[in-house]
Design goal:
about 325 residues, mainly alpha, DNA polymerase, domain 1, hpI Integrase, Chain A, three-stranded antiparallel sheet, 5 strands
Amino acid sequence: MRAKALEEYVNERLGRVSERTSQIDKERGKPLLEFFEDKALRRITAKDIREYQRHRLSEGRSGRTVNMEVNVLRGMLKRAKRWNVMSDDVRNLAENHSVVGRALIAEDKVRLFEIAASKDEWMAAYCAAVIAVNTTCRGVEIPTLRWRDLDLAKSVVHINRSKNQAGHRLIPLNGEALSALSLLRERAHLLGGGELEHFVFPACERNQFDFTRHQRSWRTAWRKLTDAAGLKGFRFHDLRHQAITEMAEAGASDATLQALAGHLSRRMMEHYSHVRMDAKKAAVAGLGTGMVSISNVKRGRVKKSKATEQTEPDDTP
């Protein structure tokens, strides 16, 4: 499958879908190009697609991810008038809709960020990850940040572009988030950027930065660094879940979580209520003060007392 076929499919949809959707289609098409290589669209069969599904699952990709990739291929095959001959023989993979996210244990989190900071080419992904895990920002919110959205003197960030109105919010910045932004600010100044209207994460093509356009994603860098950290499959979006989980475990209220994270569904709020209860149970479990042994002594006295009562003569006439 040639790259030209993917490019034509994406270009044909311009104007009917958002620019972000077009970019996502290109990203989803990359593993398709790698797998099918020079195989023409007219030669791709239902068996080939099933083999692709098995291949991607073996690489650790979720059913949902594979389905979205195959959906791009489906659109290309429809355009080539080939989908109808195989549609009955291609099935979507099962998707686990109950998964709310993945939170790392402390040592895995430390290792992830140590690896992320180890290479210059991962700088954008690293800084974005630091911001996400310290603010609850979504992956779609961070790339569109402009310097005007930040008040570093007051240590706050205004989220003005989100997937819904409830996502528009004001978030305090802690020391780690400020450090990441300082790195990006220093880089911007060195490259001639940093104006209020400029993007914090500028587009970069052939080592040329354009501060008037924002970076689309850091998907490739993220995949490489998570693999290097031994955390294959840990999504960038899971950093938001990590932040909310840690706050819930620390006892943050529902109102606080909503104010920082934006909209959270009822199911998600119930999940974090369980997280809070688990944290409380763990805290209570650490309060042992030898009461068990005291209880055993008392239990022994009770048993001895009952035995004594049973051996006393009955005075009832």
